[in-house]
Amino acid sequence: MADVCGTFKLVSSDNFDEFMKALGVGLVTRKMGNAVTPTVEVTEKDGTFTIKTMSTFKNSEISFKLGEEFDEETVDGRKVKSVITKDGNKLVHIQKGDKETTIIREFNGDEMKAILKVDDIVCTRVYKSE
Ligand code: ACD
User: Which domain range does residue 12 map to?
Assistant: First the structure.
């Protein structure tokens, strides 16, 4: 398994509401999104990576090969073209749709930090190993 694999639970989140607002996510979904503490599981087998994000509200699962574009439907229902590359201990996920969003997942030992960007908004979510 690659060095960017593991299972992590959300421990802090900064600016997620602003990030969701910029994507046009409605109030009720934003409230739920802000309230849940997802678990993220990253695995890799024979060059195919899988990222599962699980919560009591919504789940998502994507499988991909590094650098190869794939179709993704985001948890807020956007249909985007995604590409994920690896830069050292980071997975860099670019989603192209009506708006371009970036999710950088950085792995440092028992911590995974997700930095989500859209427009000029930056949201930081910190996860710790389960
Ligand atoms: C993370 C964040 C994963 C979600 C990233 C972008 C989604 C865009 C908008 C969120 C819309 C609704 C939020 C609902 C649930 C959020 C948590 C569950 C994710 C499956 O990796 O931390």
Answer: 2-129
